[in-house]
Write a structure and sequence with these properties.
heterodimer, A: mainly alpha, MetI-like fold, two-stranded antiparallel ribbon, 2 strands, elongated, B: mainly alpha, 2 domains, 79% helix, globular, ABC transporter permease subunit (chain A)
Chain lengths: 285, 284
């Protein structure tokens, strides 16, 4: 077996990230082309964290005693920070609401339709059909139905998550060892009691991968919805900046987005891993 | 009769066609068909409650798909070079195919390398792990500025996604190969190159091909949204144009054709995978 060096590997990983950051800086010095006058194609870190960060205050609509740039105020770091917080909150709230709605709806529907082998067969083909429709291409349809404001995005994210959770639930219930159900039934458990005390706990370990998968899909869905017509949020900031070829702003906001997704994924993976400490090693997905 | 007993029975060969027909009959489950019928009925029922501008009827969408597939003159008014679904579907499919092939070659090579050499793994892991958790879609506006509106930016986006997905699958597959295979081969005198060709590559093929199907399934949506963000043709452009014209019937017909193409591609891929991994117990 190969010998692993966790400490050494961690140092190499850090070095690679540092090298990427440094390479970006070098590229910004070597490749000085501009997307438009005054807007470098590759903005160095010293530009990103001063001028670019400052320019994000354009996105602050005013309030809290900090006037908006659109009303004639000077750009300030405080306004930039508030703008970042405001748009991050919009994106995260949409994601959270969509995850909640979609997760609950998918779980309840999945459990209900796993009631018997008959209902499972009934929903099999329609479900497979719905899953084949490319999710991201459906954004315009949801915007026609629910508008381009918060509701449209939340329903879209909820739909995307709901399909994943629904399929994951049906699959997890199908994989419960039959003996669990038979034993409980033999001891006189009713269907509802069985669902609550046997089915629900038994699918928890298998649902972990579904939950992690839906978080990733949720971030993608909220980004797609914001790219295609939302009026606020991190995705909106990026495409709005793209229309004016403000590459430095796009890069800064994208970095922020990468940070949020990475942190949320790691936190959720740790949290669910800890919650599943009771499950036998082999059952944890 | 169980499948094992079936295959042990003498004189199985002449019965082959019969067992295939029976398998087909088993696959077409009346209850599943009933499920589809109920789904369409619910859709039809909903159209009675909602105005057609919100929810078109199933028959309307089917008819629209039939009409638009070969010729949809309305699309040419919006500057699409191919005023039909067929041409745009072909454009999208070509992009997906090219991107999947290119992305898979990159991803499989880097995945196998990183599973073999811890140093490569330590270097690539932080990049791939980040790219694996962050939606690849984030790169779309950048690609549009760097490469302009056109084929290149959409293909690059999908190449990136496929490469990351397959890197993860290939690395995991290579790590899952039982070391005893390699040790046996080495004991029998195989060099590094033969181990790679005769042991590692065949042993990882089933899992990698599974990853390829997953990447292929995700590629369609990503390609479509890349076209939505900036393109002159393709299904994404069609959907964008139809959304601008508030035409849910047309959007649904376009989505339906795109989804069917994705299913068809997946079926072909599944057939190819089944053929390539007939020898493998893991694939079953």
């Amino acid at each position: 077996m190969k010998v692993r060096h966790p400490t050494r590997d961690r140092w190499i990983s850090l070095a690679v990230l540092a090298a990427l950051a440094l390479g970006w800086q070098v590229l910004s010095l070597v490749y000085t082309a501009e997307a438009q006058p005054g807007e470098p194609m590759v903005a160095g870190w010293q530009v990103l964290f001063t001028r670019t960060l400052l320019s994000l205050s354009d996105y602050w609509p005013g309030g809290l005693g900090v006037p908006a740039v659109a009303d004639g105020a000077e750009r300030s770091y405080l306004a930039a920070l508030l703008a970042i917080l405001l748009h991050s909150a919009d994106t995260i709230l949409r994601l959270a609401a969509g995850l909640m709605l979609g997760g609950v709806a998918g779980l309840v529907l999945g459990l209900a339709l796993s009631w018997s082998r008959w209902t499972r067969r009934l929903v099999d083909w329609p479900l497979q059909f719905i899953r084949t429709l490319p999710l991201l291409a459906m954004v315009p349809l949801f915007q026609l139905w629910f508008g381009t404001d918060a509701l449209g995005e939340v329903v879209f994210v909820a739909y995307g998550i709901g399909v994943i959770v629904f399929a994951g639930t049906v699959n997890a219930v199908r994989n419960i060892p039959q003996i669990y159900l038979d034993n409980a039934r033999a001891l006189g458990a009713s269907r509802l009691f069985l669902t609550r005390t046997v089915v629900l706990p038994a699918i928890v370990p298998a649902m972990r991968s579904t939950v992690l998968l839906s978080l990733g899909a949720g971030w993608g869905a909220v980004l797609g919805a914001e790219y295609l017509g939302a009026q606020s949020g991190l995705g909106y900031m990026i495409v709005y900046a793209q229309q004016f070829a403000f590459l430095d702003r796009m890069f800064l906001v994208a970095l922020l987005f990468v940070f949020y997704t990475s942190v949320s994924t790691v936190v959720l993976a740790r949290l669910t891993g800890r919650m599943l400490a009771w499950a036998p090693e082999g059952q944890r997905a | 009769m169980t499948p094992v007993a079936d295959s042990l029975r003498p004189g199985r060969a002449p019965d082959r066609l019969g067992s295939r027909t029976r398998a087909l009959a088993r696959a077409v489950d009346p209850l599943r068909l009933a499920g589809v019928a109920i789904g369409v009925a619910v859709w039809q029922g909903l159209t009675m409650l909602l105005p057609p501008i919100i929810l078109p009827t199933p028959a309307g969408v089917a008819g629209r798909l039939r009409d638009d597939f070969w010729s949809a003159p309305a699309l040419s008014y919006y500057g699409l070079t191919e005023p039909n679904l067929y041409g745009n579907l072909l454009y999208t499919a070509q992009n997906v195919l090219v991107a999947v092939l290119a992305g898979a070659s990159i991803g499989i090579a880097s995945g196998l390398l990183s599973a073999r050499f811890p140093l490569v793994q330590a270097g690539l892991d932080p990049v791939v792990m980040t790219a694996g958790t962050v939606p690849i879609l984030i790169a779309a506006p950048f690609l549009l500025i760097w490469f302009g509106v056109g084929r290149t930016s959409a293909v690059c986006l999908v190449v990136f996604y496929v490469a990351v997905t397959l890197h993860i699958f290939a690395a995991r597959a290579a790590r899952n190969v039982d070391p005893i295979f390699e040790q046996s081969a080495r004991t029998l005198g195989a060099g590094s190159r033969r181990v790679l060709r005769d042991v590692l590559l065949p042993a990882t093929v089933p899992e990698i091909l599974g990853g390829l199907r997953i990447a292929l399934a995700g590629a369609w949506g990503l390609e479509a949204v890349a076209e939505l963000l900036g393109s002159q043709s393709g299904m994404g452009k069609v959907i964008e144009v139809l959304a601008g014209a508030t035409d849910p019937q047309g959007i649904m017909a376009a989505l339906l054709s795109l989804g069917s193409t994705a299913v068809l591609a997946d079926l072909l891929a599944a057939l190819a995978v089944a053929r390539l991994t007939r020898w493998s117990a893991a694939a079953r």
